[in-house]
Automatic annotation (TrEMBL):
This is GNAT family N-acetyltransferase. Keywords: Acyltransferase, Transferase. Pfam families: Acetyltransf_9. It is an enzyme of class 2 (transferase). Its EC number is 2.3.1.-. PROSITE patterns: GNAT. The keyword Hydrolase does not apply. The lineage of its organism: Bacteria, Pseudomonadati, Pseudomonadota, Alphaproteobacteria, Rhodobacterales. It comes from Thalassococcus lentus. SUPFAM superfamilies: Acyl-CoA N-acyltransferases (Nat) (SSF55729).
Length: 171
C-alpha cells in the first residue's frame, strides 16, 4: 500500500525500516541512515506489513544557467528484492511527480530503465554543488556529472548549456 509521510511525521520504526531497506539495496552507502546526504521533505513508501519500497522527495530551488527554478528532486529510490519488477517503484515515482505542481522540472541522479520509462532524460550540463562525504560537508565545486536526469513538468524548457547550480548538495 502506498503512503506519503512528511519527514517530521516519520516514526522511529518507519525510519529504522527505511534504513534497513536502503542498506539491503545499497550496502555500505548509507551507514545506517534512512537518507543518503540530507533528509528529504517527505517519503513515499510501499508497505506490505513492513516497508518494502521507498522514494525520498525533495522540493528545492536551483539555478539553471543563472535563472532560479523550482525542482522536485527524487532520491533514495529502493525496492526490496522480493518486490522488484512489480511496478511498485514506478507507482512511487508517479506519485512523487504528482506531488509538486509548481515545480518546473523533476531531477534525479541515476541511470536505470525505470527512470527512462518515467520520462526522465539524461542531460550533460555542468553541475555546481557542495560536495558531501557521507553526512559531512566538503567544498563547493563545478563538475560534469553523467548521472543527472531531468523531466520537464511545465512549459519551461531545460537549458541545454549552462551550469546547473544546486545551491547546496546533490539529492
Amino acid at each position: 500500500m502506498l503512503e506519503m509521510i512528511h519527514e517530521q511525521d516519520l516514526s522511529g520504526s518507519d525510519e529504522d525500516q527505511i534504513a534497513r531497506l536502503l542498506e539491503d539495496c545499497f550496502p555500505s552507502e548509507y551507514d545506517g541512515r534512512s537518507f543518503f546526504q540530507q533528509r528529504p521533505h517527505c517519503r513515499l513508501i510501499w508497505r506490505d506489513t513492513r516497508i518494502v519500497a521507498h522514494v525520498g522527495v525533495f522540493y528545492r530551488a536551483v539555478r539553471l544557467d543563472g535563472t532560479l527554478s523550482n525542482v522536485l528532486g527524487i532520491g533514495d529510490v529502493a525496492t526490496g528484492p522480493k518486490y522488484r519488477r512489480q511496478g511498485i517503484a514506478t507507482k512511487l515515482i508517479d506519485q512523487a511527480l504528482a506531488a509538486a505542481p509548481r515545480a518546473d522540472f523533476a531531477m534525479l541522479f541515476g541511470r536505470r530503465k525505470l527512470y527512462d520509462r518515467a520520462g526522465f532524460v539524461s542531460v550533460s550540463n555542468p553541475i555546481r554543488h557542495t560536495v558531501m562525504m557521507g553526512s559531512k560537508t566538503g567544498e563547493s565545486v563545478t563538475e560534469s556529472n553523467e548521472f543527472l536526469m531531468i523531466k520537464q513538468l511545465r512549459q519551461r524548457s531545460w537549458p541545454s548549456k549552462g551550469t546547473v547550480d544546486l545551491l547546496g548538495q546533490m539529492m
